[in-house]
Structures are given as structure tokens and as C-alpha cells.
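INFO batch 0412 | record 1 of 1 | parsing
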Amino acid sequence: MDAATALALLLEQSMTPPTSPRPTFEHHLQRDWRNAALVDDVRRGLGRHPRRLSPRWLYDSRGSELFDEITRLPEYYPTEAERSILHERAGEIAARSGADTLIELGSGTSDKTRTLLDAFTATGQLQRFVPFDVSEQTLRDAAEELRARYPGLAVHGVVGDFTLHLAHLPTDGRPMVAFLGSTIGNLYVEERRAFLHNLAANLPVGASLLLGVDLVKSLDRLVAAYNDSQGVTARFTLNLLDVLNRELGADFDTASFDHVAFWDPVHERMDLRLRVNDGQVVDIPGADMRLELNDGEEIRVEISTKFRLPRIVDELAEAGFAVQHTWTDAAGDVALLLADVVGRSAVTGSASAAAG
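INFO prediction complete | emitting C-alpha cells
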């Protein structure tokens, strides 16, 4: 090979984008986990008073389509408000965190997280992205798109439930966990406390958490966001009964139920329920249950807690996180908090200062 040919080859290689490694995946859900978890939740949640079901069952393929439609409704502010913060502050978030691994809990298609990935990869500090979700196929589809968009980035998908499998988070390097969309607001107080403690316990000191929360605001705006004029949210919650009918052979008369959304001022949260208009007896063969519902009885299907910044800062501190910075959108509707894992003793008494 002459010198000119060698030089041309070197130039060609230098201009060729780095080849992304193939995405890798680890699995922590048993093959039949979904059916087993659904049956267990139906037996526990519908077999007691007040009746309730986990919001996770809202998100079958149809429910996911409806929720995507909800995020584009004029009344529903959280998605675009959080996206605006990410667009404006992603570079600052990347710099402040210093993370070389980005982990996203409940990642789905990783749509909003791509703004973060753009910022992290621009700094050259990011080595790995870890999307964490219950849907393996969704993770695989997203991983292939990310591989094409971010040459050289290692993508390691974790198929698991973030309420059960946080012990499997990678702890080498300096990870940052992104938990966006105010998903934490769907957890009850005791669930939220357990989740935050478990997360802090499974991350090394110096790791960070980027947490999205929805803030308390006027009652009119809150109710409108969860009871939209087009009835999309109603179709979304009623779809849960279709899930039970299809997957467990139940015979809910869905036309007899109404979507109900109201503000709970004691717990400062929106409460979403399904209310039966006429009493009915429902057989659920897949869960070996017969359910007697009285006229006007309700099934709670989701809560969405709204936060005041001092409150969530205190909750994070009690779990072992120290908030280093907070960003809100222009209207002050939602917030992103960047918090470091420091251990519970290190944050005692610091929560009030961090809130400012």
C-alpha cells in the first residue's frame, strides 16, 4: 500500500461515525408475571373497601394510545411543561450531575429523555444509557432507535418493575436516575416513602436523581386536566374495565360506569375513580371472584399527588437525598429537582435550605 492510499484510508476511517455496540438486556420479570400480578391486584384491591386498582393496568396498548392523546389536550399541562424545562435546562442538568450513566425509570419510548441524551452526549461524559421498563418489546424498539441516533452510546435495557427491582440498577461509575412525568405522584404516601428509601439505598453516594413533580395549583385547572371536555380521560380510565374483561374474562358492563375526577384537599391529590350507576354483580373467572357492586359504588383507579417544594424536598431528605437544584417551567406548573445521594444522616436539617 503506497503512502497516498494509506492516508486516504486513515482519513476515511476518521470520518466514519463510531459503531454503536448492540443493545443488551437483562430480565427480572417471570414469563407470566403480568397475569399473576393482575390477578393478585384484583383480588386484593377489589376484595376490600374502599375498592381500588393499581394504575399500571391502565396502560395496555389502547390505554397507552389514549394517554398519548391526553398529553396533547389543551387542558393537560404537565407533559409540555416538563418538556419545556428539559429543553431549556438539559445542558445545565448534565453539567451539574456529572453523570456518566443515565438511567430512566418507566422509560417507555424514551421520548422526552432524548433531550437529556442530546445534552449528555454533547458533553462527551455519557457512556451508557439504561432504560428501565416492564415492556421488553418497547425497550427493544426504543434501543434500536437510540443506537442509530447516538453512535457509540452503550444501551443496556432492564426489563423489570421499579417498585420491585431497584437492586438491579447499575452502581458503577456515576449514575443519574431520571424519574419524570410526576410518576411519583401516582404512589401513595407509604409507597412513595418506600420507593425513595429503596432507591437511595441501591445507589452509591454521589449518584443523583432527576425527579419530575407536578405542583399544587388552582382547583379549576387541576379538575380540567383530569376531566377534559373531549372525554379522553374518561375513555382512558374506563378502558381499565375492558382490560379486566379481556384478560380475566370479567363481565363488567362498562356502559354503566362513569369517570369521576375530584380534588382531595387533605392529601393534595387528584383522585380518579370509576363509579357504577346501577348495582351489578360481576363475575371475574380469571381471578376466581364474584363482585357485588352497589349503585353509586366507586373503584379508585389512580391518584395524582401535587406537591409543594418544601414537602418533596423533606421527603427526599428523609430518604437520603440532598436537593442541589430545582427548576420550574415559566408558569410554575411543574418542577424538576436534581438531588444527590448523600445518606440520611448527611441531610438531616438541610431540607428547608435546599427548598429555597
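INFO post-check: Residues 51-61+223-305 form one domain.
INFO record closed
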